[in-house]
Amino acid sequence: MPTYSCLPSEIRFVLEGLRKEFHWQHFLIFSWLVFLQMLNYGTGSLMGLNRMTTALNYDQMTRFLRAQYLEPQIWVRWLAQQVLNQLPPPGDFVLKLVVDGTWKGKRGKQIPGLAKGKSRSNGPWILGLQILVVCYQWNSYRIPVAFALIHNKESETYKKPNQVLRELLSSIPIPAWTKQVIVLADLCPLWVCWICCQREFSSVSEMELGLCGSLAQVMETR
């Protein structure tokens, strides 16, 4: 794998809109991490990224990621908006919000948010990080727009997955071209419909049972 010592100017130009979200030299480090992740075909670990550049060292990367003021949610939503600006809207102007949960196996005892659970009811127990992801989807495009970490139940910051998803759906921006929104989730309870009504969605079609749980379709007409 080649080693890089100079950050392409195009990367900093594309990410310039996020500069105000960082202090000190953190914007430069963030730009390097994005660039290296784009070129990395391995696991994407910090050690692997560090071997790809002579401009940063491992300690600089870890200190950046430990900064308390960082707001990754803002980064994801800003990047999602930039992608939306470059893509054509669907012909029927229907936007799907796909909610997905995933587990990332981790075993370090000092990792915040470490929890034990199952990815499915009859699956094995997993020790790691439980992550909730919401994506825009239409045609063949799927764009992550929000995510949240489900903390351990013993943590002071613990929130139930339903509550975390409620907060995510309430804060996700809807593109101006959207005429209809469909929310897809493995388990989509009635409070999802209530959220959509609070956001002035015009109607709720129905809840249908599917192979992976319940499917709630929520439609908005602008």
Average pLDDT number: 77
Reported for the largest beta sheet, the result is: 5 strands, mixed
* Cα end-to-end separation: 50 Å
Distinct helical segment count: 7
**How many separate domains?**
2
Class from secondary-structure proportions = alpha+beta
Percent in helix: 25-40%
Encode the helix/strand succession as letters: HHHHHEEEEHEHEE
| Low-confidence regions | 201-222
Whole-number radius of gyration? 20 Å
Keywords:
222 residues; alpha+beta; five-stranded mixed β-sheet; two-stranded antiparallel ribbon; 7 helices; globular; disordered C terminus
General description of the model:
The protein has 222 residues and is an alpha+beta fold. It starts with 8 loop residues before the first helix and ends with a strand. 31% of the residues lie in helices and 26% in strands. Strand 3 and strand 4 form a beta hairpin. The protein has 7 helices and 7 strands; from the N terminus they run H-H-H-H-H-E-E-E-E-H-E-H-E-E. The strands form 2 sheets. Strands 1, 2, 3, 4 and 5 form a 5-stranded mixed sheet that branches. A two-stranded antiparallel sheet has the order 6-7. It has helices spanning 9-14, 26-39, 46-50, 58-65, 72-86, 161-171, 190-198; strands spanning 94-105, 115-117, 126-138, 141-150, 180-184, 203-210, 213-219. It folds into 2 domains: 9-65, no CATH class; 87-219, no CATH class.
